[in-house]
Specification:
661 residues; Ribosomal Protein S5, domain 2; five-stranded mixed sheet; Heat Shock Protein 90; 21 helices; flat; 22 strands; Rossmann fold; nine-stranded mixed sheet
Length: 661
């Protein structure tokens, strides 16, 4: 029965005022209220200081994580204006910190170039903080005001004297009722953010402090994005030590590009617009690729490096081994969404294309030895691409959910609902046999691996597709490979590496991670890759039908368990014979050490490593792609000294369970 329209009136309409919308729907403004959203607060405040530096008014920014859980961001810029705003009739400082879309990023009177899109940053941080303190230093005076959850708790207080000639200091404390997952800031995140911003803004000093640990770092790069490219290629064999660099003003925009080729098969592309990373690319990346591809092909034709009947080098050929940083600065960036993952300004495509075509063309003409190496590398990539085409056509599975062309050794699951399905990649036929017998066949599939898979860090696609173990894996996953990769085809929600808990097992897991990181990073990024954690020990109590096993996953857990049981027996009056083995003192009849998965029977493997109710899975995630790239280069590359030094430096303290990339 329809309701009475008279029951629905103006009293049913809620009007949100001030910063209420931010507290009600924080995810709309900062993306999430988890780890990423928490650290986005720092970015929103610090980006305002970066804008001062880009505009030429600041040369030092300091970010401090405080002992009491807050963060303070200081700069030596002009200082936020403090005079009375004509519209709000309040100080401009209070207006900027309490009114959405109030700031110097609208109209012609503020910043010519800024990283802020909607001008909501400072006020959003204020709304999501239990407490905020703002101080502005201007005209020899200190202007001080405080807020709680976005509402002012003091008047603007003005005192004579200031710690510096000009600048702004913002201190905030995230609200735990909003950020329920965590309010603890990660120093590594802050350090990485500061380093990147220092690379992107030549001549700026960014200091990071952590009062909790007394950690301290300073970042200053006179070379700007040239220094960034050098760092990204650290540990790789470059085609030339020289780095191509150009910085040009076109109309009201500025284009800055640095690039260098190395001898690997992967591309590292870092595109920025107004110092904001745009991981999904956009028009600046389209313009860059168009200009780069045209210039290299034109040079190759002109200098006889491509024969008349040879087809042009493709974008995939040319990007092999490329490391590039693209930075465009423009007054009105059109980002897609508040998270700014993609740049949409159509005019930027032409700007970047023009700069690349003209100035990279000059660079190739003036450096023929480097140009020849670049073309030669791309030509080899083209040959490998053609060789891989036929093999890839055989690998990419058609009709994934109908089970067509699946690898013969895959024991698939019966469910066709991807969200329920799991693929266990298992080391060795013995362990795979136990896994097949013990699994839940409706939702768990088993793919055995024979020995160690190919190290894909140093292999092109054509060589990789000649490896039967990897071909079976690609077929089973259903996502394709190379330019035909499509995450929508993934057949399993969880892909679980199940290897022995020894050096060989960890090596196999690392080889698998290398494959996914280099050829299927989207599978990791979307949270589908896991490491199974099998137990190392079994403590056995009783025999026959009364037999019970306590499974322990490392030596520390074993010792803690034994100590706990021994103390418990002592308290119960049991006399302990110190000459007995510790497991017997603890009341167990035997201790078993599992040297490998193959030593477990189907029941044990299910109970410890496969049963969703009891197992321990470690999700693999890419926390810092640059760090991950560097680690894989060192661990899996062909420079032995780098790998040796890396292992020696970390051997004493490394815990493989804690390795986050």
């Amino acid at each position: 029965m329809a309701g009475n329209a008279g029951d629905y009136d103006s009293s049913e309409i809620r009007v949100l005022e001030g910063l209420e919308p931010v507290r009600l729907r924080p995810g709309m403004y900062i993306g999430s209220t988890g780890y990423d959203g928490l650290h986005h607060l720092i970015k929103e405040i610090a980006d305002n200081s970066i804008d001062e530096a880009i505009a030429g008014y600041a040369n030092k920014i300091e970010i401090t994580i405080l002992k009491d859980g807050g963060v303070r961001v200081d700069d030596n810029g002009r200082g936020i204006p403090v005079d009375i705003h004509p519209k709000t009739k309040k100080s401009t400082l209070e207006t900027v910190l309490t009114v959405l879309h109030a700031g110097g990023k609208f109209g012609d009177g503020g910043y010519k170039v800024s990283s802020g899109l909607h001008g909501v940053g400072s006020s959003v941080v204020n709304a999501l903080s239990t407490h905020m303190i703002a101080e502005v230093y201007r005209d020899g005076k200190t202007h001080h005001i405080e807020f709680d959850t976005g509402k002012p708790t003091t008047e603007l207080q003005i005192t004579k004297g200031s710690p510096r000639e000009s600048g702004t200091s913002i201190t905030f404390y995230p609200d735990p009722t909003i950020f329920k997952e965590t309010t603890t800031f990660d120093y590594n995140w802050v350090s990485n953010y500061a380093r990147h911003q220092a690379y992107l803004t030549k001549g700026i000093l960014i200091v990071v402090n952590d009062e909790r640990t007394n950690a301290h770092e300073s970042f200053y790069f006179e070379g700007g994005i040239k220094s960034y490219v050098k760092r990204l290629n650290n540990g790789k064999e470059v085609l030339s030590d020289d780095i191509f660099y150009v910085e040009k003003q076109i109309g009201d925009a500025e284009v800055e590009i640095a690039l260098q080729y190395n001898d690997t098969f992967a591309e590292i592309m870092k595109p920025f617009a107004n110092n904001v990373l745009t991981p999904d690319g956009g028009m600046h990346v389209v313009g860059f690729r168009t200009g780069l591809n045209r210039t290299i092909n034109d040079y190759a034709r002109k200098n006889g490096l491509l024969k008349e009947k040879e087809e042009n080098l493709t974008a995939d050929d040319i990007k092999e081994g490329l490391t590039a940083v693209i930075l465009v600065k423009l007054p009105d960036p059109q980002f897609e969404g508040q998270t700014k993952n993609k740049l949409g300004n159509p005019e930027v495509r032409g700007y970047v294309d023009k700069v690349m075509t003209e100035y990279f063309g000059y660079y190739l003409e003036e450096n023929p030895a480097i140009a020849k190496k670049i073309v030669s590398k791309a030509t080899l990539a083209a040959r490998a691409r053609k060789a891989a085409r036929a093999a890839r056509d055989n690998v990419i599975r058609k009709g994934a959910f109908e089970g067509l062309n699946l690898p013969s050794k895959l024991a698939d699951c019966s469910s066709r609902n991807r969200e329920d399905c799991e693929l266990f990649i298992v080391e060795g036929n013995s362990a795979a046999g136990s896994a097949k017998e013990g699994r839940n066949p409706q939702i768990q599939a088993i793919l055995p691996l024979r020995g160690k898979v190919l190290n894909t860090e140093r292999a092109r696609l054509d060589k990789m597709l000649a490896n039967q173990e990897l071909v079976s894996l690609i077929k089973g996953l259903g996502v394709g490979i190379g330019d035909q990769f499509n995450i929508e085809g993934l057949r399993y929600d969880k892909i679980i590496f199940m290897t022995d808990a020894d050096v060989d097992g960890l090596h196999i897991a690392t080889l698998l991670m290398t494959f996914f990181f280099r050829y299927m990073p989207k599978v990791i990024e979307d949270g589908h890759v896991y490491l199974a954690k099998p137990p190392l020990f079994g403590l056995i109590k009783g025999t026959g039908n009364t037999r019970k096993i306590d499974y322990l996953y490392d030596e520390v857990a074993l010792e803690n368990k034994l100590t706990e049981k021994i103390e418990e027996r002592k308290q119960n009056g049991t006399k302990i014979d110190e000459t007995q083995e510790r497991f017997k003192q603890a009341g167990y009849t035997a201790q078993q050490r599992f040297k490998g998965l193959g030593e477990m029977d189907a029941k044990q493997l299910w109970e410890t490593t496969m049963d969703p109710e009891n197992r321990i899975l470690v999700k693999v995630h890419i926390e810092d792609a640059e760090k991950a790239d560097a680690v894989f280069t060192k661990l899996m590359g062909d420079q032995v000294d780098l790998r040796k030094n890396f292992i020696q430096a970390g051997a004493a303290s490394v815990n493989l369970d804690d390795l986050d990339f």
